[in-house]
Hints:
The protein is an all-alpha fold. It is built from nine helices and no strands.
Amino acid sequence: xxxxxxxWTPLISSVLIAGSLGGYYLLSDYQRLETQQAVIAxxxxxxxxxxxxxxxxxxxxxxxxxDDKQNATLWFQLGNAYLYNGEYDNALLVFDYSxxxxxxxxxxxxxxxxxxxYYAGGQHLTVEVEALLEQALSLEVNNQTALMMxxxxxxxxxxxxxxxxxxxxxxxxxxxGLDRVSIINSINxxxxxxx
Length: 195
């Protein structure tokens, strides 16, 4: 019996070691396969340009809207996609739909429409753009898009102190997602022109 125990101990140890190594190999192989599948799934997008990805997003949103034409949120998302693509007239039209379908339009909707109109008009702050921005600011006094557009316009028209005041208002609002460094740099640049 002692002879059998001496034979069994190395045999069991060998089986356990081989099983552990096999399990480790299979697990690492599984992780490698999982990683490869993730890369393969992402591959079609890696080969696309930013504009092509944006076009795919527009087509996806259009498909969703085909099934749900009364969805103001989808219209708004489509407007933003058009705006990002530089298709300002389409963005303007789509933002109009979003505003009409929203029971109580928000400052974000009005400032988005103002942006589309601003860029469609060659970056001119027209009376209509100003009215949309005022509407946005009446609903949300520190609307980021509206204040940034107004500050940029003041800066471009050599009204540096007015631009600084608007940027400071934005900084003081403590909004999330605000590019504080960029705004501070703009303020410092405007201050250099005042001197």
